[in-house]
Each structure stands twice: as structure tokens, then as C-alpha cells.
Sequence to fold (254 residues):
Amino acid sequence: MDNIFDRPVIGVVMCRNRLKGHETQTLQEKYLNAVLNAGGLPVALPHALAEPELLNALLPKLDGIFLPGSPSNMQPHLYGENGDEPDADPGRDELSLALINAGIDRRIPIFAICRGMQEMVVATGGTLYRRLHEQPEFLEHREDPELPMEGQYAPSHEVQVQQGGLLSTLIPGCNSFWVNSLHGQGAKSLGRLLRVEARSPDGLVEAVSVHDHPFALGVQWHPEWNSSEYALSRLLLEGFITACQNYIAEKQRL
Fold:
């Protein structure tokens, strides 16, 4: 059995909910288990850590940043749109954007899932489609809420890997694969720091990475779901943890 203290410390951003009248910050177990099963040590990050002094104290203790999915959507004003978002989480927006910017500057490995990928897009100057289902050119990317959970997370559509990027390195020889799909928003435009790593058959961006960064990957699907059962998910998560271990070694050399 491995030494738990040798595992890279992975900061996982929490989400705000209201439970029995109380403001609460939570993390779904599937994200925590995915990090643990891949060899990381997940640590929950509350939104108050966005405060600059606290964030600066936190960052040296992190070996990786993990941005999970969420039922909430980003605030539209963050990517240049007007109006309100009924399912917003401003505290998560603030912390996630701060962590992404710091992770890019400090070259801390980042793995972002679903909402997390959308946060990467916005943090680097991109924009989002607020309601993909209103865009006739796109497939239906939302899950069917009437299905049991296993059905909601079942493979939904194919994605095509763009060669020469981080994703193609993590899954060599794999040009396309099937993914689940549980999102109502998606990447509309990308800033100059991001490259496209994969697209769905309708052309929607399904994965992105940061140029000139050891590991900053965002995916629109959910590899954390039963991650130990799927070889592709294991490769992505283990690639992230390997990058975090490399980051530790780099810190120790400095």
C-alpha cells in the first residue's frame, strides 16, 4: 500500500448549495473517489480561499488543481453577456477563476471537468453558449433526467481527438471515442491561451488545453463517473496525477 503522505495534494473546488435552510458547500463523492483512485490526496477548497491573502498561503501547499462539474452555471457577465443566470454560484466563479490564473502562472497541473472546462474557457478570455439546446446546429448535449443515474452517465456521442495535443499524448493511437454528456452550456470561442483537444461530431469543443503548460486540461464530459471501470478515464486521471508528481519534483529542485 502506498504512503498517503507521498501522494500529491489536489485542491478540489466546492459548490454552494442550500440544505435545510443552511448555506452549504459540498463535493460529490465521485470526484473525490476519482482523485483518490488515481493516486491523489483530495482536499476540499471552500470559496473563502479566493481572498488574495488566503489564496497566496494556499497555493504553495497544492500540487494540483481539480475543477469538478456542477449543476450551476457561470455568471454571464464574466464572458460578456447580459442578464442573470438562475443557477449561479458566484463564490465558485471567483475561486475557480483565481485558481486557474494562478495555476497557469505557476504551472500547477489543472484538470477541469464540465463546468470546470467552461471556467477554463472564460478565465482565458473565451465565451460560452448559454443554452446549447437553442442552437439548431448542435446535438442534444443534456442528460435525460428521467433515466436512472447509470443511464444519464452512459455514452452519448463520439468525440474526435485533435492530433498533436495533450489528449492525444495521454491516449496514444486513439483518434475517437464515446463519452457521456450532461451539460447545457459549452465553449463558444476560445482565447489565445487555449487549444482545441477534441470536438464532438457537431463541431462543439469537447476538450481544451493551455498552450505551453505541463498539464492544464479541460474536458466537457465526466471521466470521474466510475472512473476505475473505464480505461480512458483512468489514463486521463493518472496522467493528471503523474503531472502533479512531476510538479512536486520540480518544486523540490528549486
About this structure: The chain has a mean pLDDT of 95. The first strand starts at residue 9 and ends at 13.
